[in-house]
Amino acid sequence: MIKYVAGIDAGTTGSTVMIFDLEGNLIGTGYREYSCKYPHPGWVEQSMYDLWKGICETSKEVLAKTGINPKEIGSVGFSAQRGTFVPIDKDWNCLSDAIVWSDGRAGKEVKWIEENIGKDRYHEVSGVPLSGLWAYPKYKWVRDNRPDLYEKTWKFVNGQEWLLHNFGSTELFTDPASLTLNGMMDIKNLDWSNELLKAINIDRDKLPPVKTPMTQVGVVSKKASLETGFEEGMPICCGGGDQQCAAIGAGVIREGLSEITIGTAAVMVAHVDVRRPDVDHSVLFGGHAIPHKWDMEGLTFGAGVCLRWWRDTFAQHEKEAAKQLDIEVYDLITLEASKAPVGCKGYIFLPFVSSQVTPYYHDNARGGSMGLTLANDRGMMARAVMEGVVYEIRMIVEAMEKVLGRPFEAIRLSGGGAKSDLWCQIQADVYGRPVEKLKVSDCTTLGAAILGAVGAGVFISIEEAVEKMVHTYGIIEPNMKNHEIYTDMYGIFKDTFLALRDANVYNKLADVTMKHWG
Question: Which CATH architecture group holds 298-440+475-513?
């Protein structure tokens, strides 16, 4: 008898495995952290074998902790990084480490694309503004700089395809919900763009065919069963890109609803029935995890990773105290930050540690801070990191609502940031509107589980699955006095970014970095 479903999120900094009952209650969860590699300034790579090891260890841990019978789990669905790709041979061996979505090596290739395709045509075809952070210019980088690797490659696959193959998938595929950050999709037809592939001389035969998400692609193999603990023969299903899964896990399956995930990055996703005009090229349009539907999206690449940087660089005292008290170090950091005044007495953190994405798409943007005086202390600095992340997200909210033509009916919060009451309140106060919390804040993994359950036939439709498994449980109202302070600070935050961009400071700094340390 089927009592449970499982979801796996193979993220950038770690893998999460969760098991839910059919009412959406979380039965067990596990997490394994792993690292990226930074071989040159701006480059980000990752071993797919590290991801697989993390998933195997976490799966066994969850099954052991819960003590449930693996035979009672009806399906597993996947969420994976988008825009991360790895070259493989015919035996599915990785020919190199994966190039990660946040990798910034393709500046020259972006200029070539702009000159030879044009920003307007590229946006018209792909649904996304031109950026060096999408996979498309990195594919050109591989084609131009590693022709030996290109020739040896049988297929370039996203992370989800490779991991599903390890689980026992019998199909070679990708799906529109995984391809948004690839930047090489024909958005109208939700398929690879022949025009864009031809322009950079990429053979379509080196890419997997595009199929629909929410589909069973095989069953757990004997080998994968031994490595993960899941039952041999259990259905495995493609889910989608991480943020499309998050939208499902937040119940964003109709127009007017949106969700914001603060994880390593921060992402805002909204369901849209049709692609809308975007004269400023400010937001992304991609394939939803619901077959034959679209979503609208905005990104920041520096969110939770900024707080992690703060933890690793400045929070040695908190780490030791958390270890002794057997609590999470982030609880101590946010406790300290909660005592700091709103707006941190004028101290602003700029979270552009991996570029600025929506709505300005400046690949060379850099992080920093301003407003530092002797009145600022550690608590204010920690809080400023949290506030700076949300200031950047507010730029996304404004851009997406401009394209939508009206305010969103609801903004739901998910991801690791939603577990922090302080970060949730900061969001309500910065946006100046209520935000909704969800019973399961890790919407990405829940969404993957839901998509897997529908694909395997545990539920008859996505609507039935969302109704049974997604539950909101609280609304956080904004403090409008705080909103007034934050609006003033946000204006300075935005003006600072634009001033540095327009003065070419970011590009000059990138050039100097490459000159001396590249």
Answer: 2-Layer Sandwich (3.30)
